[in-house]
Amino acid sequence: MKNKIHTTAEVNTNKLGSNVSIWQYSVILDGCHIGDNVNINAHCLVEGDVYIGNNVTIKSGVYIWNGTTVKDNVFIGPNVTFSNDKYPRSKNTNFKLEKTILEDSASIGAGSVILPGIKVGHHSMIGAGSVITKDIPPHSIVIGNPFKIIGYICSCGLKVDKKFCPTCKKEL
């Protein structure tokens, strides 16, 4: 399928998959990888040292900084904030880049903040407005500032009380 890139978007990478939509006023820097079936909404920025897998949705107002890996089937809600420097200072050219990894099928709610060096586990779900200060285990549902685990979610999408899905009969 053909890519849809809005006339106001600036796309500088040549590593663009198929069936990609990039909406108004988004900037995609040279070097980043964007997989197939990706939807990047309006007013987003993706830096050059970023990997975005297949079937990813990035809602409006999200800036994805160098060192971030977004694996397949990830949902990033509007105005999610990422950072890649634990000790930011203006004009500091030798900061230590902290890598952030969003594992397959993770979902991040609107307005959440993901601190640098975090791994968000596969199939996890982060509630809107949460502040993520450490790694999120796979299949966890988390909310709050700082976050706390309030339950678990199966890969089938069903919320479960324990690490076992009665529908799939799978242990998470």
Structure explained in plain terms:
It contains no helices and 25 strands. The chain is globular, with a radius of gyration of 16 Å. The protein has a single domain (4-171), classed as Hexapeptide repeat proteins (UDP N-Acetylglucosamine Acyltransferase, domain 1, 3 Solenoid), CATH 2.160.10. It is mainly β and 172 residues long. The model has no long low-confidence stretch (mean pLDDT 95). 32% of the residues are buried. The termini are far apart. The strands form 5 sheets. It has a 10-stranded mixed β-sheet, with no helix packed on it. Strands 3-6-9-12-15-18 form a 6-stranded parallel β-sheet, with no helix packed on it.
The topology string of helices and strands comes to: EEEEEEEEEEEEEEEEEEEEEEEEE
**Total domains:** 1
Q: CATH topology, anyone? A: UDP N-Acetylglucosamine Acyltransferase, domain 1
Shape: globular
CATH class: Mainly Beta
User: What is the total tally of β strands?
Assistant: 25
- Beta-strand residue percentage: 35-45%
**Treating each run of at least 4 consecutive H or I residues as one helix, how many helices?**
0
Mean pLDDT across every amino acid position: 95
CATH architectural name = 3 Solenoid
Most strands sheet: 10 strands, mixed
Low-confidence stretches: none
Structural class call reads: mainly beta
Strand order of the largest sheet: 1-4-7-10-13-16-19-21-22-23
Radius of gyration, Cα only, in angstroms? 16 Å
Rounded to the nearest angstrom, the distance between the terminal CA atoms is 35 Å
